[in-house]
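=== RUN LOG ===
request id: a7f3
mode: sequence -> structure
chains: 1
length: 496
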Amino acid sequence: MRPCDEFIIDDPGELGDILAQLAADPSAPPRTYNRLQAIWARQVGDDIELSYLASAAIGEPFRLWRCRVSPGAEVPSLSPIVALAGSYEREVRDLYGIDFAGALDRRSLIFHHAKASGAPSQDQQVPIAPSAPTIVESPDLQLLRFGPVRADVVESARFAFSYAGEGIIHLETQLFYKYRGMEKLFEGTTPMMGSILAERVSGVDSVAHAFAFALACERAAGTEVPERAQQLRVLLAELERIYNHLHYFGLLAKLTTLKVGDAEGHYLEELAKQANASLTGSRFLRGLITPGGLRRDLDVSALEPVLVDLEERVQGYLGTLNGTRSYLDRIETTGVLETHVALAQGATGPIERASGLDRDLRRDHPYGGYDRYQFVVPDASAGDARARALIREEELFASFAIVQQILKRLDHGPIRVPFEAASLTGEAEGLGWVEGTRGTLIYAVYLEDGRLARVKIKEPSFSNWRVFPYTVDGTNMMDYAINEASFGLSLAGNDR
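=== RESULT ===
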């Protein structure tokens, strides 16, 4: 799979020993070792092919291990070695019926009533344990089941709190209430249609998804994108980061009961979205990125003064927030994520960087020309809601700086080259990655005779939802909503 280093595992029994090297050394610098990114499966003839993807040290290629097994086979679980593997193994078990021997968690992930399948149908009953939450039971504890329908316009999920008074002893999450089978929808479509689907996996990350998908298709086909198109793609990605982070601060202000801060944060988000609409015709920056470049060119001549004004407003807004004692009191020491937990459970994006893990794909594995721009990758070590807010604050201004650099050096020239997927014969594979607003986003694309045969999406919220409960146990009910908001999680992206 371009551009990975690949390793073939002939004996499934050797999976555990070979992949043990994916267990990160907590004493090593976080940018120097292999780190598991995703596990997925696909049908290849009569067999099931398992793929294990890891990012490597800074500047080194991603690494991919493959192993073919028979349907219904049992293979060693990686979850006792790499905790994050457990969620991916549960997903593969639900969709493809592969059993993982020694798995630490054997519950269904996607299907809530022990109903799963070999993809694509969902009619076949397979012996998967039900996904009912694991509750901490005690006569001294109370149990609160919350969701899947929640107040406001929050996405659907179910939470079970075991608590005593205000203290939360244990939180169990049940997600995938919005499972849409997005990966399945790609199959049989053209890459051009696939880019439209990718934009709709998670509405708040439309650019990131389209970007990663296009990169994967282009690498599969060996397509080189024009310089102007690369620059405009990065510009769109950073504009998306800006409005997402402004939404984040508006929500955090709301949940810390700052009504004016809530209104101003969402007003600034609205100004950013209006700038997006003026530039592209879409508040969410949709309909532009496609394999081969961009669907149309953009006139950026009016963008710079708008962003200069917006950045000045954002500086004033965040300065006021950071000078508000009641705001700081609610986020400092709230929802602490220890570095070793963030590492073991696969935290990504601002979440890992707030817990002392200095990783960012834009810098460590550059794509789309990011290596040509100067920007700061912030990090912190406190791991609390305050640290997560500080990371996003610094990222906001880094995004403004990147956009200004692009506007000053934007090339003239074509914005697209022909991507003749229909002319591709046989099989082609490509991997695309993007540092989205929420962290590492990866697309693995398989093409057969120019059409999509399999698309795997590694969404950052899939990892961060796994991490989140570790910051809840031992805290209190009054801080829960603030803690969840500080993670900036997406359920649409997770549930796919």
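=== NOTES ===
Confidence is low (pLDDT under 50) at residues 114-133.
The two ends are 23 Å apart (CA to CA).
=== END ===
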